[in-house]
Structures are given as C-alpha cells and as structure tokens.
Amino acid sequence: MNFLSIFVLIPLLMLFGLWIARNLNQVRGVMVAGSTALLALAIYLTYTFIGDRAAMPADEFPMLYTASFDWFPALNIKYSVGVDGISVAMLLLSSIIVFTGTFASWQLKPLTKEYFLWFTLLSMGVFGFFISVDMFTMFMFYEIALIPMYLLIGVWGSGKKEYSAMKLTLMLMGGSAFLMCGIFGIYFGAGATTMNVTEIAAREGAVVAVPLSLQRFWFPMTFAGFGVLGAMFPFHTWSPDGHASAPTAVSMLHAGVLMKLGGYGCFRIAMYLMPEAANEMGWIFLILTAISVVYGAFSACVQTDLKYINAYSSVSHCGLVLFAILMMNHVAATGAILQMLSHGLMTALFFALIGMIYGRTHTRDVRELAGLMKIMPFLAVCYVIAGLANLGLPGLSGFVAEMTIFVGAFGNTGAFYTTLTIIACTSIVITAVYILRLVGKILYGVCTNEHHLLLTDATWDERFSVVCLILSVAGLGLAPWWVSDMIGTGVGPIIDVLDGAKQFLNVPF
Amino acid sequence: MSYTLFILLLPLFSFLLIGIVDMDIPKCGKVWSHKAAGLIGTCSLGIVTVLSYMTAWQYFFQTERLADGSLPTLVPFNTTWLPLGNLHFDLGILLDPISVMMLVVISTVSLMVHIYSFGYMHGERGFQRYYAFLSLFSMSMIGLVLATNIFQMYLFWELVGVSSYLLIGFYYTTAPAIAASKKAFIVTRFADMFFLVGILIFGYYTQSFNFSFAGSEVQMADGAAAFIPCDPQTALVKNAAYAVLPISLVLMFIGGAGKSAMFPLHIWLPDAMEGPTPVSALIHAATMVVAGVFQIARMFPIWIEYAPQTLSVVVWVGAFTAFYAAAVACAQSDIKRVLAFSTISQIAFMMVALGVCLPGEGEHLNHASLGYMASMFHLFTHAMFKACLFLGAGCIIHAVHSNEMSAMGGLRKYMPVTRWTFLISCLAIAGIPFFSGFSSKDEIISACFQYNSICGWWMTAVAAMTAFYMFRLYYGIFWGTENKELHAEHTPHEAPWTMTLPLIVLSVITVGVGAVTTLAGFGILPETWNFGSFVTASGAVYGVHFDTQVALTSTCIALVSIGLATWIFKGETQPIADKMYAAAPHLHRWAYKRFYLDEVYQFVTHKIIFARISTPIAWFDRHVIDGFFNFLAWGTHKLSALIKGFQSGSVQQYAIWFFLGVLAVLGIMVFVL
Fold first, then answer.
1. Hey, where are the domains in chain A?
2. How far is B264 from chain A (nearest CA, A)?
3. Which of A72, A283, A469, B421 is disulfide-compatible with A349, CB 3.0–4.6 A?
4. Which secondary-structure segment (H or E) carries B80?
5. What is the Cα–Cα distance from A172 to A235, expressed in whole angstroms?
6. Residues on chain B touching A395 (C-beta within 8 angstroms)
C-alpha cells in the first residue's frame, strides 16, 4: 500500500464515520479529525517530498512514490499513483481548503450530516485526481468530484439554486464528455498499451506520443474539456451562477480547488501528452485566455452581487493560469501553478468572508451594504486583506504569482506574445478598480440600515478558518522561494517535452 | 554595516506589534492603549533614526573613497527571494549616496511626524491603526530607497502605494476620504502598470534586474537577438537593443510620474489631502511623492548612457507640470490644497533638474551632473521645509477646525511658533538666500540655463509664482481679515509641545542647511561643506559655486513676488485682489477648478470605462454567451418535448410505427440497393 493512497483512504474512512455518526458533535468530530489528518498528511508529504527531491540529481524529474495496481486489464486501466512538485502543491492547497472549509461550515443547517457526506465525497474526488497518474483513474476521480456539486448546490444553496446547480453540472458534464473522448483518443493514438501519463509521455521508441494528425483533433477537445472547469472564456458562465448559489464551503472548495483541476488537467494531460499540437494550436487558446483575463475583470467592475464580483474575478485570475501555461516556458508555467495556489487560497478566503457576511446581513447586494467596518471589524479587516491579496499586494500571494507569470510571459519572443502579455498586465489595474470600489462601498462609509447595526462580529470557528487562510496567503507571499523551487521540479519535464516538440513544427507565431 | 537590516525590520515589527497583536478582543478591548501604541511606533522610529544617522555618518565620513574620489556602493545584505529562471528577484540593502541621503530624510521626517501625531491625533478613534500604518509606510519607503534591484523597488513601490491608500482613507466613514483613497490608489496603479511593463522589458533585454549595468551589453544584444532571429553581433540587433532601453526607461518614468504626481497623472495628490495632515506631510509632501524622482535618479546612469535624448521627455513633462501646478496653487482656497499643488510644482522642479543633465564630455563632465546634484539637494531641502509647512498647516487646522483660508486670517497673534516656523519655510520655498530652498533651487535654475535659456526662464517664472502663492497663503492665514465669528466661539491657541517641537526642529534644519550651503556656495565656508561633496551623479565631489547672475536674478524676482503678494494680500481688506478676481473671473474659476481635469477623468472612467466598456461586457456575458448555453438547454428541452410522443405507451401506436419502419427498410432494400 502506497502512502499516497491514504489521501483517498482518509475521506473514505470519514464517509464511514459520518455514516455512523449519531449527532452533530460526532459529525463535527469526524470532520475535524479527518480534515486535520489530511492537512497533516499533506504537510508531511510536502516535507518528505522536498527532502527526497533534494537528494536526487538535479536533472532528473521522475514522479515520486509511484505505485500501480491492475484494475481493468482489458483496457490497461490501472490504479497508478505518483506525485511531482505540481501535485504536491495542489494536494497541500486542497487539504488547506478542506480543513478551513470544515470550519467555515461549522454552523451549517439543516441536514448537516448529509451535507458533510457529500462534501467529503467531493474532497475524495479532488485528492484522488491529484495523486493519480493514470488517465482513466484521474477521469474517474474527476467525475466523483463533479457529481456531489449538484446536490450540494441544489439542496443547501441559496437564490436560484436549482437552476444554477443544473447549469453548473450540465456544463461541466458537457466538458467532461469532451474530455473522455480526448482521453480515449490519446489512449488509442498512443498505441492502446497504457493509460499512464508518464509512460505515454516517455514515448518509447516513437518520435511523437500521438500522431500529429490525431493530436490536431484531440488536443482542442481535451484542452477545452478541462478549460470548461478552468473557467476559460467562453465556457465560464457556470461560474458566476454556480458560485452565487453555492453554500460557503462549497464555493470555497469549488473555486479554491475544483477550478484548479481544469488548469492541472490542461497542463498534465492535454499539453504534456500532445506537445506538438499544443505548440501548433496553443495560440488559439492563448487568445481566448487573454480575453478571459480582461473580460472577467471588466465584468466584475459592474456587478452588484458580492459573489458575482468574486466569480468574475476568478474567471480573470483562472484565465491567467491557463494563459501562463500556454506561454510554455519554465518561469511562466511555475507562475501558473503559483497562481493556482494563490488564487485557490485567496478566493477561498473571499468566499468564506462573503458567506459570513451574507449569513449575518442576508443580502449580498453591494448597494444595500455599507459601513461594515464599524459593525464587524474583524471580518471587514480580513476582507480588506483578501482584497489586497487579490489585487497583488506584495507580501501576499497574488503578487508572487502574477509577477512570476508576467516575467515568464515576457520571456516569450514575438510581438504576438508581448502584446497579449501587455493586455494581461492591464488586469492589475482593473482588479484594483473593482476591489477598491467594493471595499469602499460595503466596508467604509456609514451604515444606514438599522438591522445591520445590531449584527455581531465573527465567532471563534469563523475566525479560525479565516486566520488559517490568511496565514497561508501571507506565508506564500512572504516566503515564495521554496514553493517556487518545488513547483519548478514538477514543471521541468513537461516544459522540456513542449520545447522538444517545437523542432518538428513551424509555429505560426 | 549589517545593522542597516534593522532599519528595515524595526518598523515592520512595530507594524505587526501594533497592527496585528492589537485585535479587538471581545470583552477585553484593545491590547495597547493609545499611548502605548504611539510609544511603540515612535520608539522604533527613534531607533531607526539613530541607526540611519549612524549609517550616514559611517558612510559619508568613514568609508574609504574610491580612487576617483567617489563613494563606493555597498551591499551589506542581499538574498534571492524568488527565482525566475535565468532571472532572480532579490531582496537586499544597497547603500550609495542617494539611498543614504534618502534614509536620513525619511527617518527624520517620519520621526517628526510620529511625535507630532501624538498631539494631532489625540483622542481619535483608530489611533493604534494610525500608528500601525505609519510604521508600515516607513518600512515600505525605507525598503524602496534601499532596494538593490528594480524589482525590489517595485515591490516596495506597491507597498507604499497601499500604505498611502490606507492612510488617506483613515477617516473611512466620510465620503471624500473614501473617494480620495480609491482615486489615489487607482491612478498610481495605472501608472505602475507602465512601470511593470518597463521592468519586464528591462529585465528581459538585460537579463538582470540590477541597477548596475556592467557586463550586460552583450546580454542585451543576446536578448534582442532572441526577438530578431539573427546573429547577436549584427548591427540590426545592436540597434534594437539600444532602442529598447529608452522605451523601458520611459515606461518606468510613467510609473514614476504617477507616484510623483506629474501632469496629467497628478490628479490624485490634491484629493489625497483628505487624509490626516501629518500623513500629508510625511507621505504626500516629503517622502512617497518623491519616489518618482528617486527612481529616475536611481536609474540615472542608464538614462545618461543609453537614453540621453529621452531625458527631454522628463524635462518638458516636468516643466509643464511645474507651471500648471503653480498656476492652480495661486487660486486655491483650501490651505492643504495650496500646499499640495505647491508640492507638485516643486517635485516638477526636481524632475526638470534631472532631465536637463546632458552627457558630459571631458572637462564639462561636472556641468552635466549639476542638475542631478541640484535635484537631490532640492529633494532633501524640500522634504524638510514642506513637511514643516504641512505640519504648520496641521496646527492651524487643529486650532480653527477648518481647511479654508476664509476661516483664518490674523492668526499671527495667537500662534507665534507656528507663524515663525511657517514664515521660515515660506522664505525657504520662495528662494531667499540663507534659507535652504535658495541653495537648491538656484542650482536647479542654473542647470536649466545650461540646458537652454527657454527652460531657464520658464523655471525662473515658475519660481516667481511659487514665491507669490506661498506668501498669498502666508498672509491669508496669519494676516488679512480676521475671522471674528470664529473667535466668538473660542480663541485659537498655540498647539501643544508635541506639535510645535517638530516644527522647530524642521525649521532649524531649514535655516541651518540654508545658511551653511549659501555661505559655502559663495565661497565663505569651505567647499566640502556643501551638498555636492556628498551626493553627485558620478559619486565624485562636485564643487558648488553659485552663478552670481542667476542667484541675483532669482533672488530679485522672489523678492518682487513676495512684495507683490504683500501689497495685495496683507491688508485687512484686499481691494486689489477683489479687482483681480473681477477682471478675470473665468481665469480664476478655471484655475480654482484645476482646469477641469478631474471632470475629464470622471468622464473617462464613468462614462467611458464603466458605461461603455464594463456594462456592455457584463450584458454580453449574461445575454449572449450565457444566452447561448441557455438556448442549448432550451433547445434540448424542446426537442425532447417533440419526440416524447413516440413513447406514448399505446400499443397500437407502437404497431403503426413498427409497420411504417418495416416498410421504410423494405423500400430502401428494394429501391436503393
């Protein structure tokens, strides 16, 4: 038994524990114990990974802690696990979000037990996805993560919850239909011998893993399939509605982790396995993601619902993730993974705070809120910090990620790339516009609503969850070098493959 | 000199100590009382000041000079913060003449403001928060000037921007403060975007974010060769490499123009006066707003070597701003606004001085660095007297509870200390000999005359306007018509010692520096006492000698302007001023409204960006893109409604369809195959 599988085992045990739990305290006990164990495991993994990595030669980047079990031999489907720098970072992110999400839904009612059951199932899918290296197993875990979302939003959501749940699920399922076609396309294109990502990429005895004519067909399909989850323009519209209706912790997990599955999949499967097509067709998606970045930011400027603002902001920031990986160089790709981490943490923080404010005021309309700084100072100060992280204040995570991306993106030659990079740079100004507008409107000023004057500040469980997230955001922002190094080891082989593919092609730009 | 690290870290600790530890704990209240928070902040700044002076003393007097007489550049601490492929983002401490000079300026003014705020902010809600932000600002500003590379500068550049945002919005319940803080941040952020792109271009081509350029020319050609696919040694690539540096420097200058409030990005600075007055003194007069000047001075070796012609952009932007701001300052009625526009104008002087430097050759090398030296000198003297003016204005506002000049008048009897220190600073900014502003401004004007005479006369005219509006302000506050209504309520009184002490210290510095440098400039005191032996472009000692013609002209013009202001504004009634307003009402109104530039910006942001870009995009998203997906769902729904009739459950219907199907298959088999 490989110790990576514990990441899936713990949620399984939690599911069992939740099933037999008899009252609220037992449910909470199981959740706290389980999510703490996951967090501890992720920290342990990070620690040992960095240690083991340092002991290896600097020019070798294998997957670590690999293990493989036959599952469905007829189709060569195996349960294969293994991690590199990128997955370790993602696992750490997921465990932080699950941990804080547990505390953020501390007072959730009704049907607390059922809620946590679905929540745990969702996290199991997420962890399973990040530890897998077998395409089919990855896909399976991906689906496990998607389905609970429907119920979590449909049952515990707010507003037009049925509509949003349906929309989100249908759009994401549409994406995963493309994805499944893509995965089987890669499998058969690569000779139908293995589903293992690293083995396909190693391309034993062949010049290209998948013939280029097939790649031209499957690459856009796979990329767009993952791109739907990564909120790529024009497949992003599930995001504002879905986030607006979802309960707090689900928004956190969804924006914080699930959207990262998209970027991760694009990078690990679409681009890694089909590097020739990625080089050839990347520019199309590069334009789309550059549009996402600016489009999301501009849209956020005029929204009136707090969650819509944040959802469009996520479109903009996740657009930057895909934008950066499509730049296909080492620095930009490292920046993309950093941005995934950073965006995951700060969006989770944002959604947690919005949920807490909504729980008190029962409105998320910017026009009805004012002067919250005086009424709930703790939440308001944290909101300002989250906003500053979002607009890239040095010392918080956003700055590190954005700067790495921009420096990397500028390393790409050619007027096409430079123009797009400069367009993407404008988002730092637009982000400032909508964040400061929001902060000025809801936190500053004088509260005129008499009911709001009676509201109280955060409770201990809320404070704990928020403080954990802020510490993570600040930690990444203040000491980025070790994360950056760790991610760099994972990005290396993928970028090498992408670089190697360039020689076979005439890249249009 | 590794202790310089503490200069950076101490304010950070005090920020964390006051800001983070000081959460509102339910039922227990704050951890620190007002006094404790203020003392923590002030003490840490006190230690920082002592350390800065020690650094300055060691650096200027005890460090061994290099063979050519210049001071060495020391890097006591440097570490890689973020690796970026071939590049790397370092954090460290760099000591050279300008950074040490800035260290002295920042710590002095910041300490004075810390002390002053005890009195000024007494009893304010959020006293602890105020001191926490002051510490944060001091840390960021010190980090900015001590930066070892352009990216570190950008990092702290953003941090000072945020501290400024937080402090302008200190009174966050009032609408003007909220709007002003937002405006300040967004306008400077807009400029910073250009700065960032400039840094990225610079970093890409030179393969380094460092200021020192040694050995990078080859790299630069290599960088350009990556853009233009041919051999790095060809003329084409070399030309491209040299064209790219001016572009990146100009982009960085736009960033600096945003921070330093150059036209047309100056609009945030007057509004920033909504913040507490000591903050205006520290951030918006003495330190942060000169960051743009500092940035050009920092990149100056690269400017002068690779982009000397491009410096003319700096000259003309600066010259226009200086004039524009001085013109607006003549018509403002809010005393802080007058000072704000005066600050814009004075910073423009520094910009112009940097811009008028031309690459020197042979013997004239010294001439070339006159502007640089003058600019840094003016930065130093301006920081002191402008901080003094702002703090004085704070005392006045404290006494009369209004910013408007109409509420003041005749205060000289009630506030003697404020009055005399204010007068000293006014004389300094007007450029009267033996006050510090004279020495520095005179050098700037000399440098301008060396550049060309239009520029020289232009700046002389602006200097005359400076003297005029400053004395208009002085007479408006301390002479002129007394506000009797105000006195009926309570008589204005002098501020407590915590507030007057900083005024006295700053005006003593103004007079002291002014007297010494004036005497040294005329050759009465030894030359080494002058500013030129500390900070120059090349680092070598630069002997300052006043150009007698220029000195005489500018002094006479300043005296005439002061006389004019005295004649118009000193009396109890001001018939001449009224007549002037009546003669040109539109001009006065336009100047008062700052030539309607704010309205133009309002139009662009609200009517164009919000109404014409953002709203349509949001609409497009909700209706077109989302509409398409909803249409898909609707289509599926309709389609299934159409064909659901097939599953009616009635056996006869199934039989008919079955029969028809068989017929169709038969038909195909018979006729088609």
1. 3-504
2. 17
3. A469
4. strand B74-84
5. 9
6. 159
